[in-house]
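We both want to read discrete structure tokens more fluently, so let's practise on a single case. Would you write everything just below, so we can both look at the same thing?
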Amino acid sequence: MNFTELTEKAVKAASNAGQLIRSYRDKDVNVMQKEGGSTLASQVVTEVDRKSQDAILQVLLPTCDELDIALLAEEDEDDRGRLESAYFWCIDPLDGTLPFINGQPGYSVSIGLVAKDGTPLIGVVYDPVHDVLYQATKGQGLRRNNERWSLMQDSQALTFTYDRSFAEDPNFNQVKDELEAYTHSLGLNEFNPIHYGGAVLNACHVLENGPGCHFKFPKSQDGGGSLWDYAATACLYEEGGAVVSDVFGNSLELNRPDSTYMNHRGALYATNKELAKRIREIIAKYSVGR
């Protein structure tokens, strides 16, 4: 399996889809409801989501036939082929549908290649608003707009990105206070909590503005993001030397057999191990009774 060539195909697919999305930026689009998790973000879809997915599949479907790669895409039913094949594409054709509908930045195309055991092997994310493409292939490092990229962690601010559902969490203010106190304990000058967009660019924004973090509490309801929200960025973080795990410090279960949702163990992204450790302590404190 030539992962370099497959990465190039994923880059082409993401770029094509991003150009299509950009062409709809100033147009009225048809918004529909769909079955999803417990959050509004998982229950809305537009015609652009579907057209973006079609553009991606036009590039990637031939690899599925030629190389026996399974497919998990947000706008199609899970056929569970991912549990049988050695690898599967994991596709979110338009992560951040709500900011897209509202004409705000924070949406992206996300394509990952995941091994049957859940190991992320390829991650490609394209931000069509800022024309930035992130890519990583296991063992080959991290690239930004096709140039080798190393994380910068010398900012005097701690960045914390969060999503709409986290902002509505009853412990949201307490968590922010804990993170702000940790910021000052590190001798940093500023704490920057920001609702940036969908889960994918929330994670990427942290990579751009380290030190920083993005995380989601585990919960009993369906939701907490889906496999396609994390597959690509998990690879980006691993290849960038950052930390990605569930909230208990275990690897993300990116091919869980019983569901495509990630609510069961939450998710944690951090630019360094010390910050990840502190986040796990905070999450443990406020996860009781969830």
Summary: DSSP finds eight helices and 14 strands in the chain. The chain has two domains: 3-148, 157-286. The first strand starts at residue 31 and ends at 33.
